[in-house]
Design a protein that fits this description.
heterodimer, A: 435 residues, 3 domains, 20 strands, 23% helix, B: 179 residues, mainly alpha
Chain lengths: 435, 179
């Protein structure tokens, strides 16, 4: 792995806090569970440590989170707050949300400090990187509490199928499949100290090939979360244990029923972004908006709201992340909005289809892995295409460092050609004539 | 108020007698203020009001005296002049040495316009909008506030960038779903 161009993944180099800082509300039960996970002889090669960083007060607020639909009557106060406290919006003279110019991903994240309110305590700030599936990976500021808003929302999603999270063992294992990514053992104060583990199913992430099965069967988590690719790899393991439910995200899941049958548990497909948190979950042919204080619009290219049933860009207004209030944030994803049974749903959500490439040695490489090696190079844009004969062309902007791009892509795929060209904003990022 | 242009007033400031800019301890500032108000048809200062001018911060006191010189022949409202002298000059005095209102052309224009605004008078040859606009451009207090706001904003932005780069932020918190 020494030639792998991601310096951030040096084992444990990014783990800097004490356990007391990681779990301010740690219970004795949680401490026992954590010790068990950390010392498990078949555990993956942990290379990071990560807590929930939730105070007892934050846990209480999350447990009381009102999972209810309501009118967006909080929008005027969010606008007033943004005018007063958010540098980007200071002194604006809006009278309603319709006056707010939508903001795109690049504009929001390239100068993200302009969107952080003046009055938030930066001691509370954490950052997460975006997956890079919508453009160059970027860093999103948030609070631990906003990050953990997933917990009541995921409980809501599985709860609609009558599934309850007990939180009496390992509650959740989130699975990835990448050459290198963080793996860590954690516990959740929200779930009373139940275990939460992030694992990488890539063989290089374990001491021995049989450890993944042994460890995951021993954990026997209530929930798995992952993406269609990593969950397929999980199914390939043929575990004898069955979770209560499986959460799939990050990419379009084409066939939930097939995955569900392979994993022996219902699969719930969720949609969201790092910037917004979870937005919707799939229910049949549509994605139902989650019961959050979040206002979702669908806008046309001119920024005007589309009538119900007309496709446009999913645009989010939400003040739930204190570090990054969003006013008409264009997600880059497309769908139409409709009412169904009194609830707003997204129809025809165009997720980011997973693309895989065949490496020179015949191995299949997922597009997210390509993102991982190319995004550290700071390219403004790029596209990767595999021709029917297996040759791979990487297109980069005219000022890009071709030698570095070539070496980074070759570390995964074998020899590639790198072409310099003007790249349009909406170009399909990954494509393949194979498959 | 005797109609006048800003140029008339800045000329008068350029001719400020050195006595008005002397060490206030050597003068009787309250008496000068009181005489000016009377000259404009007002009442003399009461003892209570006089005490404020007798013991003020030196640069503020000098600015009060220069303003008295400027206003003495203006024919303006003594009540409005008193309000300006008593409460309207502290921010300016904190930023600019008083002698510059006699020696620096921009500061002369500023003080002339500050006085005219306080007296509720539009300078001869200007509209109210032009006068307000022109005062904005020479307004030291406003400029200082804008610069301070810009500096504070840049310091905050730098603090956010630093916080986002800190290892304790990057260790982050566990994520539960993949998006």
């Amino acid at each position: 792995m020494s030639d792998y161009p991601i310096p951030a993944y040096e084992p444990m180099a990014a783990a800097v806090l004490s356990d007391a800082e990681r779990w301010p509300a740690m219970t004795a039960e949680g401490a026992r569970r954590l010790a068990w996970l950390r010392s498990h002889p078949r555990a993956p090669l942990y290379n990071h440590a990560c807590g929930d960083r939730l105070s007892a007060e934050a846990v209480a607020r999350l447990r009381a989170y009102p999972l209810e639909y309501g009118p967006p009557d909080w929008v005027p106060s969010l606008l007033a707050y943004a005018r007063e406290r958010v540098p980007r919006y200071r002194g604006r003279t809006w009278t309603s949300l319709a006056d707010v110019l939508p903001i795109g991903r690049h504009e929001l994240l390239s100068q993200v400090e302009l969107s952080v309110p003046d009055d938030v305590d930066l001691d509370e700030l954490i950052v997460h990187s975006t997956s890079g599936s919508r453009g160059p990976a970027a860093t999103v500021p948030m609070t631990p509490e906003f990050c953990a808003l997933d917990l009541p929302l995921l409980e809501h999603v599985v709860g609609r199928a009558g599934i309850r999270v007990r939180g009496d063992g390992v509650a959740l294992v989130t699975v990835y499949l990448m050459p290198v990514t963080y793996q860590f053992a954690s516990v959740s104060s929200y779930w009373g100290g139940a275990g939460v583990v992030k694992v990488n199913l890539h063989p290089s992430a374990w001491r021995s090939p049989s450890d993944a099965v042994a460890f995951l069967e021993d954990c026997d988590p209530e929930l798995y979360s992952g993406n269609p690719v990593s969950l397929a790899a999980l199914a390939d393991l043929g575990l004898r244990t069955r979770p209560s439910a499986v959460i799939s995200g990050a990419m379009a899941l084409d066939d939930p029923a097939a995955l569900s049958s392979r994993l022996g548990a219902p699969v719930f497909d969720v949609y969201g972004t790092t910037e917004t948190g979870l937005i919707a979950y799939r229910d049949g042919d549509a994605h139902t908006l989650l019961p959050r204080r979040m206002h979702v619009e669908v806008l046309d290219p001119a920024g005007q709201p589309c009538p119900d049933g007309v496709r446009g860009e999913i645009t989010v207004t939400c003040g739930e992340n204190p570090m990054l209030p969003l006013l008409r944030y264009r997600t880059g994803d497309h769908a139409s909005l409709e009412w169904r049974d009194g609830v707003r749903v997204l129809v025809g959500l165009e997720g980011r289809a997973p693309v895989r490439f065949r490496a020179a040695d015949g191995r299949w490489v997922e597009s997210i892995e390509v993102t991982q090696v190319l995004s550290p190079l700071g390219l403004v844009a790029y596209s990767v295409h595999q021709n029917g004969d297996g040759s791979v062309v990487v297109t980069v902007p005219v000022d890009a460092p071709v030698g570095l791009v070539s070496a980074a892509a070759a570390s995964l795929l074998g020899p590639v050609s790198v072409v310099r060209a003007e790249i349009g904003g909406k170009a399909q990022r990954y494509s393949s004539d194979l498959v | 108020m005797i109609p006048c242009t800003v140029a008339d007033m800045t000329r008068r400031l350029a001719d400020t007698p050195p006595d008005f800019l002397a060490d206030p301890a050597a003068l009787a500032p309250a008496a000068i203020v009181s005489d000016t108000l009377v000259r404009l048809g007002g009442r003399p200062l009461t003892d209570r009001l006089a005490a404020r001018f007798a013991s003020g911060e030196p640069n503020w006191t000098r600015l009060v005296l220069v303003t008295c010189w400027l206003a003495a022949d203006s024919g303006g409202s003594p009540e409005r002049l008193h309000d300006l002298l008593a409460t309207g000059l502290a921010d300016l005095a904190a930023l600019v040495p008083a002698e510059r209102f006699a020696t620096d052309p921009d500061r002369r224009e500023e003080l002339a316009r500050v006085l005219l605004r306080a007296l509720g008078v539009v300078p001869l040859g200007e509209t109210a909008e032009q006068a307000a606009d022109r005062l904005d451009t020479v307004d030291s207090v406003r400029r200082h506030r804008l610069l301070a706001d810009a500096k504070a904003a840049e310091e905050r932005a730098e603090a956010i960038r630093r916080a986002m780069a800190e290892k304790r932020a990057r260790e982050a918190a566990a994520r539960y779903s993949q998006v």
